[in-house]
Amino acid sequence: MPGIKDAKCVLVLGATSGIGRALALAIHDLDTAPTVIVAGRRQERLDELAKQGERIKTARVDINTSENELKGFVQETLSKFPELDAVIFSSGIQHVFDFTKPETIDLSKFQDEITTNYVSIFKLIVFFLPQFLKLSDEGRPSFIIPITSGLSIVPFPRVANYCASKAALHSLDISLRTQLAKTKVNVIEILPPLVESELHDHQGITPALAKAWMPLDEFTKNAMEGLIRGDPQVAIGTAAKTVSKYEQDKQETVQRLHDQISAITSSN
Ligand SMILES: NC(=O)c1ccc[n+]([C@@H]2O[C@H](COP(=O)([O-])OP(=O)(O)OC[C@H]3O[C@@H](n4cnc5c(N)ncnc54)[C@H](OP(=O)(O)O)[C@@H]3O)[C@@H](O)[C@H]2O)c1
């Protein structure tokens, strides 16, 4: 099965902290010596990462932006790195919304969250796909690696829109994988449990969460094992339990329905 060990050049969006940073460094350390492009908004964090290895390149980007800017970013990245064959979508934000106090709900935060966690990722995938389908035609594998969450399946109401954005991305991953099944484009979804990171810092609850989260090293070790094997879904810890409880046979069911409908529509 093709896995991340087969990638030559990996872009990690959201590599300036937490899960993205840890995966970028672990992939950089693979024996296969891929180029790793680390991306995010904070330049000083990118500069620090660039010092960790010659094969670490940087790209400053804010994905909460217009379609044209996203397209320009993809074109520029591909012109600098024509070998690019994997993208990890680790960029993400999380906001708390209280529907019992609707006057406190900041709709600009809702918009930022849905754009960052879903809408821009959808657009970026559309812009990267021609490159990956070209590689597929040449017989080479490529990898689209979105990061969702166990909360994409069972929501945590305090962060309702975050969960909705991850549910949308989770659903998209299944459809993408199904549509691309006959190509060499691999869609690998990572579903983390609660993991040590900076995601919740602005909510002021990090010390409480730190009592329950999975240490980043443990998460990264497990995630890398799945990425190297090329598992279609890399669900870890409590997220793995959620998948096995609520999503048994889902991918197979979707693939069967897709194949049935395709057979009917192509015979008309
Ligand atoms: N930690 C958890 O418990 C957990 C659980 C399940 C899923 N996840 C998911 O895992 C992924 C990584 O999160 P994390 O926990 O590692 O959080 P984190 O430490 O806060 O990292 C989030 C990353 O996203 C980047 N980012 C945010 N907005 C961006 C934007 N507009 N444009 C470009 N980059 C942006 C940040 O970089 P800059 O600020 O430099 O732009 C940062 O590198 C996220 O998708 C998150 O939803 C996390």
UniProtKB/TrEMBL annotation:
Q: Please tell me whether the keyword Translocase is annotated for this protein.
A: no
Q: Which GO terms describe its molecular function?
A: oxidoreductase activity
Cross-referenced SUPFAM superfamilies: NAD(P)-binding Rossmann-fold domains
Superkingdom, according to UniProt?
A: Eukaryota
| Cited Pfam families | adh_short (PF00106)
- Keywords, in A-Z order: Oxidoreductase
Q: Which InterPro entries match?
A: NAD(P)-bd_dom_sf, SDR_fam
Q: Which family does it belong to?
A: Belongs to the short-chain dehydrogenases/reductases (SDR) family.
- Name recorded for this polypeptide: Uncharacterized protein
Q: Which organism is it from?
A: Trametes cubensis
Read off the lineage from the record. Eukaryota, Fungi, Dikarya, Basidiomycota, Agaricomycotina
